[in-house]
């Protein structure tokens, strides 16, 4: 299996914490300073494949490190997980579920380069969309 998270070189990569089911590593390449990844040890590709004990440790670890980020060097912290099976695996996209912790500041570099455009992307839901998606997700 050609998975960089399953075959992580513990000597080469900076593992910050290792638990029974997950580990925390500095993201390389990083999106922002202090960008961390929380990675399940077991190879899975979607969060729905996580076992209960893996979910618990992953979420507990995410909260623990978000609090560390907030108390030590940043006033904000995004937690993200991307599921994009339509993209090929690369240095920027790995087919192994993982969560990103991104330290954030008001109008930081990430905001200046991409999130400033969010106001042009987000739109109010129409009544038809509300009905359509309510039926889709409830049914």
From TrEMBL:
Ranges for the HIT domain?
A: 1-111
Q: Which GO terms describe its biological process?
A: nucleotide metabolic process
Question: What residues make up the catalytic site?
Answer: 98 (tele-amp-histidine intermediate)
Under SUPFAM superfamilies, the record lists:
HIT-like
Motif Histidine triad motif, per the record, lies over 96-100
Q: What is this protein called?
A: HIT domain-containing protein
InterPro entries hit by this protein: Histidine_triad_HIT (IPR001310), HIT-like (IPR011146), HIT-like_sf (IPR036265)
Stored PANTHER family: ADENOSINE 5'-MONOPHOSPHORAMIDASE HNT1, HIT FAMILY PROTEIN 1
For molecular function, the Gene Ontology terms on record are:
catalytic activity
Pfam families reported in the protein's UniProt record: HIT (PF01230)
Tree of life domain: Bacteria
Q: Name the species this protein comes from.
A: Candidatus Shapirobacteria bacterium CG11_big_fil_rev_8_21_14_0_20_40_12
